[in-house]
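Trying the structure run again after the queue cleared.
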Amino acid sequence: MEFGFSREQLDFRTEAEDFVRGELPPDWDQKAIWWPGGYGTIPEMETAFEDFSRAFLKKLGAKGWLGLSWPEEHGGQASMIKQAILGDVLSYYRAPAGGVAVSIAAPTIILAGDQELKREFLPRIAAGEAGFWLGYSEPNAGSDLAALKTSAVADGDEYVINGQKIWSSGAHVTEYAWLMAKTDFDAPRHKSATLMIVPNDAPGLTIRPIINICGFHSFNEVFFDEVRIPKKYVVGQVNRGFYNVMLALQFERLAVGVGAFRRVLEELVQFARETEVGGEPLSGKPDVRAKLARMAIELEVFYTLYWQTAFMLETGRVPEQEASALKLMGTELGVLFAQSAVDVLGPFGLLDTASKWAPMAGRIALGYLDSISGPIGAGTSEIQRTIIATRGLGLPRGE
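Done. Tokens:
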């Protein structure tokens, strides 16, 4: 059995790497943090990088790379492997990748949206001209998304939306909300909500910043006060929102930034080789070697799971428990990498971007803070373990 990549796929990786290196500013690594597995340091979500991110995504769109996994009838190449290769390359260089629009909205619109929705949004997403933020979580609805209270009431040819969303990553730098709203309060919990698209400039929609633990504005709270949208912006069937969200998750899980882990490991290994303590390089100390070796082993397992999931999607299979395992391992690996990196760097690992003595542009200290967001966002680690246990292993649900 052949587990390698084809010549075409290898050539595509080379092309992608050459493109990204040629487009990123010379000081990108000094400015862009992006700790793998976290949600609070993604450059694409920050106002400071908004202009560059928009321009970069349009260039990706011009090359046809934002829809690589899409069916050919929608302008794609029907290749999840190429999409996964591009994701690996972009994350390695901490470059913008299209976020929710590419990883969630587009695949769901293709599978569940009507023709009018496809005609309006797919070309703009493919061109890098339409960005989305996730309107899922609320102050009292996180892992238990069925507890959401934001309502959408039908009124003629429109829906009127009222409520609040929170932890809305990138809402301030994108154009649309990918919103879950309650459309039938009398229906069973998982048959009561609808997925819909809401323009950020709709009257009554207010975005307020949340400054995260790293000091960045990546999160927001968003309020809806009599916000009106046309019914044509409903994605899929009314009251079937939870099913469409689950449909999207299998694609979202590939957006794990696997290359960013490899980049951090390479930087740590280089630091250990070049830094001496007591006349001996750090790389010669058994405890440092052990930590780096564990990181390398875990990363190799993670990559194997990543390519397995991409291959399953490429061949038409649904990687339900595999996708959950990928998300679980990626975010937990972000914590492991952060803790190990602080241990390897010692006191220098606590210095952030404000210090000229901070190794790796202060990425380690901020990554240590950001890593705690990974196992919470986009479905907690506990939720992922439950999915793997019940749907993957057939175990009974705990009481």
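The longest strand covers residues 217-230. Worth checking whether this holds up in the mutant runs.
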